[in-house]
Specification:
This protein is an all-alpha fold and 150 residues long. The chain has one domain. Helix content is 88%, strand content 0%. It contains four helices and no strands. Helix 1 packs antiparallel against helix 2. The longest helix is centred in the middle third of the chain and has 38 residues. It is elongated.
């Protein structure tokens, strides 16, 4: 597999993970908003739903790509090694960039608009773009200095 295909698969996995995050955030924030209109509580539920949705979609896509693109079949060792390189950094970047941005953007927009779904979606889009840039920068550094491809 060439570098361009790896780049596309990596970003596809992140984007499909974000699809799961959008679904999770929208569903949880909608149901929580039926119980309370507290912007803080709704924003917290959006973050929690986003974590669950993103994790499920990303893992499913990553496993699918590993099965589809591997010449020798799926290797659990290779998959676990990728997780070891990716997951801790992704968790740190997500914790420092994505979730705080999602929380504060959505809280601000909910308070100023009085709506839930649209502000959460736009907040999530902005937070995701910041995270995607950071993850691709990490992937570049990992390849350049350690020779490891994700």
């Amino acid at each position: 597999m060439n570098f361009k295909e790896d780049f596309l698969n990596f970003n596809k996995e992140i984007i499909l993970g974000e699809v799961g995050a959008i679904i999770g955030a929208q569903v949880t924030s909608y149901f929580v908003s039926n119980a309370t209109m507290s912007a803080s509580t709704i924003s917290t539920s959006a973050v929690l739903g986003s974590i669950v949705g993103a994790s499920l979609f990303w893992v499913a896509t990553r496993v699918y790509d590993k099965i589809k693109t591997s010449r020798r079949g799926f290797s659990s060792k290779s998959f676990v090694e990728d997780l070891a390189y990716f997951t801790p950094v992704a968790f740190i970047l997500t914790s420092l960039i994505y979730y705080p941005s999602l929380y504060y953007f959505s809280e601000y927009l909910i308070k100023n608009s009085g709506h839930v779904t649209i502000p959460v979606f736009f907040s999530q889009t902005g937070a995701f773009l910041l995270l995607l840039m950071a993850l691709n920068f990490y992937r570049y550094l990992l390849y350049k200095y350690a020779g490891k491809e994700l």
